[in-house]
Design a protein that fits this description.
Layout: H1 4-13, E1 22-26, H2 42-47, H3 49-55, E2 59-62, H4 90-102, E3 106-111, H5 121-128, E4 141-142, E5 163-165, E6 171-173, H6 188-203, E7 208-211, H7 249-260, E8 268-271, H8 277-283, E9 290-292, H9 304-321, E10 326-328, H10 337-340, H11 355-359, H12 369-385, E11 389-393, H13 414-418, H14 462-465, H15 472-486, E12 493-494, E13 501-506, E14 510-515, E15 521-522, E16 528-531, E17 539-540, E18 544-548
Parallel strand pairs: 1-2, 1-11, 2-3, 3-7, 7-8, 8-9, 10-11
Antiparallel strand pairs: 4-6, 5-6, 12-13, 13-14, 14-18, 15-17, 16-18
Helix pairs in contact: 6-7, 8-9, 12-15
GO molecular function: alpha-amylase activity
InterPro entries: GH, GH13_cat_dom, O16G_dom_2
Family: Belongs to the glycosyl hydrolase 13 family.
Length: 549
């Protein structure tokens, strides 16, 4: 078996390192705070690089760290080529990337191309310009349907109108918060400037980019604007929606790929594109971004048939376009999967996303915490055995539960405010993670934390789990170490047995078996190298995954 260190060294020089990488998402404001102001920062992340090394990841995905008013958690960017002073400096960034690279860890950074913040120099210039002047052409300004009515009845993703009125009576498009005006990607200056931004960070040593809302850049703004009642659902639009997944977006990404491929090794990119599976392939093509997020497992309940279908379909799609699939259960936008899996099935149909539970402040229905964690551990071990890239979200390696009881006065997500409380928002998964059993912010920093941490956080802390060989943290560390040694070709073979046991083999004899049923099942005649929970003799209990070889 190849040693972890040998594999890590080889990984550093491979152009396609991203194909089967384990990527750890850091939401920087909630990871580690070095100066006690309650907000995580780059020096805080640097101080935790040894933790990342011990965890065994291949890369860090760093959510936005740019100057921002935080109207949308940093996804409202003032300056794409700088660091928010509250988080550090460019020198801190260089130190961070140097520390990660010295440890054999790659760095992927978020890029937010659909919109800027309303404090960006371009937008300030646009507001100062008169109607019709060129400074407004970098954004999407239109006259209203009437003096008091916006150009169309389109809705923002965060609720309310997608248009905001300016002082001179014109309106600008914002598909998210009003503080996030959409850019006009038909403008050559916009296209050229983002190429410069990609070059700026690539020259500093960044290994790749996660492209936010990658399917929204190009828009069909032919007038008259269609009514929202006539628009197709995003998931069924197939390029026919005027605002999402327009075919013209791929011309942009072809230009990006040319730039990214000019580096040695080429810089990677992964698209966040909420599009039908059949449309996802173009974003992940070799002349496009190269890889695209697959959220299908994230949106599947813990059930055999749903997991099997998602895995089969996405491996087939990846094989068709020559990319590799991506697998993810939690991120900065969704209820943590250890909580989702502890909730009963959604009585309204669809997957259990936990949004109704959040609206009850985490009280109704009751979360079966033990069941949710057992399922989460089993699902993660299964995912780590799949061909493709695995994306982990900070804190999931601790089995961290969603914080449902955040007080309204502490909420920050614009989704909560724009929906007028119809949605609780995403703050519950963004609460700073616990490092120690006790302390003002459970080791997050020497002060408090910008989102309130609950009293029960200490039991989930790194300190509480570090020496416990049965803890979720220990499971992740063991799984990533074993995975690195077993990682092989980008394929699997199904072993069909029952409709509740998901069993497959990987080249080299690696087997993964997950029991989705209620009763224990017999394990194959092979050596168990790791399991997500205790075995019952030679049987695999319910909601448990085992790796064998």
């Amino acid at each position: 078996m190849t040693s972890p260190q040998t594999t890590r060294t080889a990984q550093k020089t491979q152009a396609d390192w991203w194909r089967q990488a384990v990527v750890y998402q850091i939401y920087p404001r909630s990871f580690a705070d070095s100066n006690g102001d309650g907000v995580g920062d780059l020096p805080g992340i640097i101080s935790r690089v040894p933790y990342l090394v011990a965890l065994g990841i291949d890369a860090v995905w760093l959510s936005p760290f740019y100057p921002s008013a935080l109207a949308d958690g940093g996804y409202d960017v003032d300056d794409y080529r700088n660091v928010d002073p509250r988080l550090g400096t460019l020198d801190d960034f260089d130190e961070l990337i140097g520390a990660l690279h010295e440890a054999g860890i790659k760095l992927i950074v978020d890029i937010v191309p659909n919109h800027t913040s309303d404090r960006h120099e371009w937008f300030l210039e646009a507001l100062e310009a008169a109607k019709g002047e060129p400074a407004r052409d970098r954004y999407i300004f239109r006259d209203g349907a009437t003096e008091d009515q916006p150009p169309s009845d389109w809705d923002s993703v965060f609720g309310g109108s997608a248009w905001a009125k300016t002082a001179d009576g014109q309106w600008y498009l914002h598909m998210f918060a009003a503080e996030q005006p959409d850019l006009n990607w038909q403008h050559p200056e916009v296209r050229a400037d983002f190429l410069e931004t990609l070059k700026f960070w690539s020259d500093r040593g960044v290994d790749g980019f996660r492209v936010d809302v990658a399917h929204a850049l190009v828009k069909d703004l032919s007038e008259p604007f269609p009514s929202k009642a006539t628009l197709p659902r995003q998931s069924e639009s197939y390029g026919k929606h005027p605002l999402w997944d327009q075919d013209g977006v791929h011309e942009i990404y072809r230009d990006w790929r040319k730039l990214l491929d000019s580096y040695d090794p080429p810089r990677s990119a992964v698209a966040e594109a909420f599009v039908p599976a059949a449309r996802r392939a173009r974003y992940a093509s070799a002349d496009g971004l190269g890889q695209a997020f697959n959220f299908d497992l994230l949106q599947a309940d813990f059930e055999y048939d749903k997991f099997r279908k998602v895995i089969e379909e996405n491996l087939a799609l990846a094989d068709e376009n020559g990319s590799s699939s991506t697998w993810v259960f939690s991120n900065h936008d969704v209820v943590r999967h250890a909580t989702r899996y502890g909730l009963p099935k959604n009585p309204k149909g669809g997957w259990q996303d936990g949004k109704d539970w959040l609206l009850s402040n985490g009280t109704e229905p009751t979360v079966d915490v033990a069941l949710g964690l057992r399922r989460a551990r089993a699902a993660t071990l299964l995912m780590l055995a799949l061909p493709g890239s695995a994306y982990l979200y900070q804190g999931e390696e601790l089995g961290l539960q969603e914080v449902g009881e955040l007080p309204a006065a502490n909420l920050q997500d614009p989704a909560y405010f724009r929906s007028k409380g119809a949605e609780k928002g995403r703050d519950g998964c963004r609460v700073p993670i616990p490092w120690t059993v006790e302390g003002l912010s459970f080791g997050f920093g020497p002060g408090g934390s910008h989102l309130v941490q609950p009293k029960w956080f200490g039991a989930y802390s790194v300190e509480a789990q570090h020496d416990d060989q049965e803890s979720t943290l220990s499971l992740y560390r063991k799984a990533l170490a074993v995975r690195r040694g077993l990682r092989t070709g980008n394929s699997l073979t199904w072993v069909d047995a029952t409709d509740w046991v998901l069993h497959f083999t990987r080249p080299g004899g690696w087997q993964s078996v997950t029991n989705f049923g209620a009763a224990p099942v017999e394990l194959p005649d092979a050596a168990v190298v790791l399991s997500s929970g205790p075995l019952e003799g030679d049987k695999l209990p319910s909601a448990t995954t085992a790796w064998l070889i």
